[in-house]
Amino acid sequence: MKDKDRIHHLGELQCAIMRVLWAEGEASVNRVYEALPSEHRRALTTIATMLTKMEKKGVVSHRSEGRQFVYVPEVAESDVRRTMVEDLTERLFDGDVAALVSHLLTEQEIDREELARLQKLIEARRKTEKGHGR
């Protein structure tokens, strides 16, 4: 199974850890701890345990550098987002993408710039779909 086809279910702390690794490219447990936002800070041992669990899931790997492990992300942020949003859409909206988008538009604060950006994305998608004869 290709990585792109795998489903990645990550919890809140795991996502925060992955954001650090995606931003830094690689990091030791200490560096992950230092870079985590305060609301996700846990004991160093908790971060180390979480990274070990994440390695067993195949989302990170490590190499030894002296006496410490340096962790590297093994999955792309876009793949994690895609699979988690697909799962959310399926579970909460019965797979209905339009219902998800409708919910976001009606329940979230969206300023004019964001709405304009969304409109451009929709227009670009329409052009792409038209080009594929759909």
Strand content: 5-15%
Q: Would you identify the CATH H-level superfamily of the largest domain?
A: Winged helix-like DNA-binding domain superfamily/Winged helix DNA-binding domain
Annotated CATH architecture of the largest domain = Orthogonal Bundle
- The name CATH uses for the topology of the largest domain is Arc Repressor Mutant, subunit A
For the record, the CATH class of the largest domain is Mainly Alpha
Put simply, the count of helices is 6
Straight-line N-to-C gap: 29 Å
* Strand count: 3
The outline comes out as elongated
Element-by-element helix/strand order:
HEHHEEHHH
How many domains comprise the coordinates? 2
By secondary-structure content and strand pairing, the structural class works out as mainly alpha
Poorly predicted runs of 5 or more residues? none
Main sheet record: 3 strands, antiparallel
Q: Order of strands side by side in the largest beta sheet?
A: 1-3-2
* Helicity range: 55-70%
Radius of gyration using CA atoms only: 19 Å
What would the average pLDDT be, to the nearest integer?
A: 91
Report on the architecture of this protein.
By secondary structure, this protein is mostly helical. It folds into two domains: 3-77, Winged helix-like DNA-binding domain superfamily/Winged helix DNA-binding domain (Arc Repressor Mutant, subunit A); 96-134. The protein has six helices and three strands, in the order H-E-H-H-E-E-H-H-H. The protein has helices at 12-24, 29-35, 44-57, 77-93, 97-107, 112-131, and strands at residues 27-28, 60-65, 68-73. A three-stranded antiparallel β-sheet has the order 1-3-2. Strand 2 and strand 3 form a beta hairpin. Helix 2 (29-35) crosses helix 3 (44-57). The model has no long low-confidence stretch (mean pLDDT 91).
